[in-house]
Amino acid sequence: MIRAYSPYEISFEDCEVPEENRLGGEGEGFKLAETWLVHARVPYAAAVLGIAEAALALAIDWAKQRHTFGAALADRQAIQWMVADSSVEIRAARLLVQQAAARADQGLDIKVDASVCKLYATEIAGKVVDRCIQIFGGLGIAKELPLERWYRELRIKRIGEGPSEVHRMVIARDLLGGQRTRAA
Fold it and tell me: Regarding the domain delimited by 28-176, which CATH topology (the fold level of the hierarchy) does it fall under?
């Protein structure tokens, strides 16, 4: 489900890295990795929007050509609303991605922006593809169409680069100020 990725585990025992080969300062490994992760979340969010847009284009084409009970699916209000909601959500997610990218280009701290756009884009892309499958009906989950594969792949996107729950914590901590713990 992660397609080209093949996760492996690597371990080092009694391995010494010369200081000149070290990335970052001593003890700053997590901080360096976190910076890379934060900046990777923006293109990650953009990529899932591409999938959502492609799915919506397929569903729109299908709704225009498919007729049931004497009318095109595109003429049915339920289909129109699914298409409209999907378009609005994709646009909103795209603006969040663009905002985070612009702030990154300005050299600003984008930790929260990256969490916002990653959280929203991955959640919305999954909803959009789910709606598109609904528009296609049973054909939507046929292997002849990419929708069922995209649906499976988008599920892992809500976990990769930090799960949605972690991003909600990042956003909440920023809004509430610092680490919050549950009252005893």
Answer: Butyryl-CoA Dehydrogenase, subunit A; domain 3 (1.20.140)
DSSP letters for 119-144: HHHHHHHHHHHHHHHHHHGGGGGSTT
pLDDT digits (tens, 9 = 90+) for 77-107: 999 999 999 999 999 999 999 999 999 999 9
* Paired residues of 71 in beta bridges: 68
pLDDT in tens, 124-149: 999 999 999 999 999 999 999 999 99
Q: For the chain, what are the domain ranges?
A: 28-176
Which residues, at least 6 apart from 168, have a Cβ–Cβ distance to it below 8 Å? 119
State the pTM of this model.
0.84
Is residue 59 within 8 Å of 151, Cβ to Cβ? no
Q: Catalytic site residue 20?
A: no
Q: Could you tell me where the DSSP H helices lie in the chain?
A: 29-65, 77-105, 111-136, 147-157, 164-176
Candidates 19, 123, 161, 165; catalytic one:
161
DSSP codes joined into one string, 140-165: GGSTTSSHHHHHHHHHHHTTTTS-HH
